[in-house]
Structures are given as C-alpha cells and as structure tokens.
Amino acid sequence: MELENANILITGGTLGIGYATAKLLIGSGANVAITGRDEKRTMQAAGDLGAMPITADVANPNDVKRTFQAFMEKYGRLDVLINNAGIGLSKPIDALTLDDFENIYRVNVFGAAMMASKAAEVFKKQNHGNIINIGSTAALKGYEGGSVYASSKAALRSMTQTWQNELRRYNVRVMLINPSEVTTAFGQPDRQERGPQTNKLRSEEIAWAIKSALQMDDRGFIPELTVWATNPF
C-alpha cells in the first residue's frame, strides 16, 4: 500500500513501539491518530509527533466506540489499525489470581478484539483495509512466570489467524508482528522507557518491520513476522 495520505490508527501510541511506529509512518506521509489512557501523556506525544490524540482505554468498550467515532469524523476513511496497546505481568503459577488474567486479557485480548471488530465494520464497507496486531515471541514459546502474558499473546495470534480467514475476501490484510525483547517501558511500574542496550531490540526495529509489511503491494501480505535481536547474549 501507499503510505502517503494513508489514515492510520495506533493504539498505545504514546511510548515505545507505538510511538516509534507513529513517528516513522508520519515521516512517510501518513495521517496518524494515537490512543493512550493518560490524557496528558497522549496530548504531549501527539503534539511531538504531529498525530491526532485520542485519550482512550481499549479495555473500555465505550472508549473503543468513541475512538472510531472521533477518527472517522476527522478522516472519513480508515486504512490501517495497529493493535499495539498491551500490558504485561510476570508471576509464578501458584501465585496467580483470576484478577491477574482478567486485567491482562481485557487489554491484550478483549481490547484488541473489540478494536478489530470496529475496524472490520469499516473495512467491509470500504472493501479494503489492514490490521496489524503486535504479538510477542512469548506466544511461540512460554517462559517462567509468563502464564498470563504468554497466553494472552497466544490468544491474539489465534485471533489473527481467524481474522485472516474471515477478512481476506474483503481485501483486508491481517498481519501479526512478534517482537522479542524490546527496551521499552513495557513492564516498568513507573512507565519510564528503559535505556537502549546495544544487544537488544529497539522500538525502531519493530516500527521498521511494521512499515515494511504495510508497504508490500496490496495483492500480497505477510501473515506473521517475527523479529529477534541478532545476538542478545
């Protein structure tokens, strides 16, 4: 697809992968809206990027509806949804509670599904569109303490495959990007970005993968793309 004047909605766009992706796509001529739960941070990030700010929580169905209303009122057409918003938790199996699963799943699974559902309504009418889900290598291989997070990303992977089968007939490309460890604010209690490490992935590598996947001609798409650090050891 052509990124010039494409209308793109990115959830969780105030930090990390979402922010870096918004910056790269805006630099390529796209019109981008970002969502974030913190109004001050969302307004600041959007101002820095030149993006449209939408203060919203993907775990809140009313916010999901309001997000699409605001986006479509401004742009009138949606070309890409990037389901980037996500939260994590690391706990041993014998310490887990039902609330742990519900809190993570409301964002990583239910929120992503409700955003995709609204996007699918738009895309079916348009007969074109793109959904990019930000997964994780955790979905491909579990890790100690990862029962909740890894399973949430495995669910997202399964949903991605389902949506691919449902939406291809409407010229909708649904793609999954699986980053390995990225030095973002993910999992940080204070939501402050970690400093870059020479042997770890940056948000920019994932943004580049997203941009590259989108730029393939619309006649083809990459169902799943995994990005590993070359030498993290």
From TrEMBL:
Pfam families: adh_short
Molecular function GO labels: oxidoreductase activity
Keywords: Oxidoreductase
UniProt cross-references to InterPro entries, sorted A to Z: KR_dom, NAD(P)-bd_dom_sf, Sc_DH/Rdtase_CS, SDR_fam
Domain Ketoreductase positions: 6-180
PANTHER family: 5-KETO-D-GLUCONATE 5-REDUCTASE, ALCOHOL DEHYDROGENASE, PUTATIVE (AFU_ORTHOLOGUE AFUA_3G03445)-RELATED
Family affiliation: Belongs to the short-chain dehydrogenases/reductases (SDR) family.
Protein name as annotated: Short-chain dehydrogenase
Protein's organism: Pontibacter flavimaris
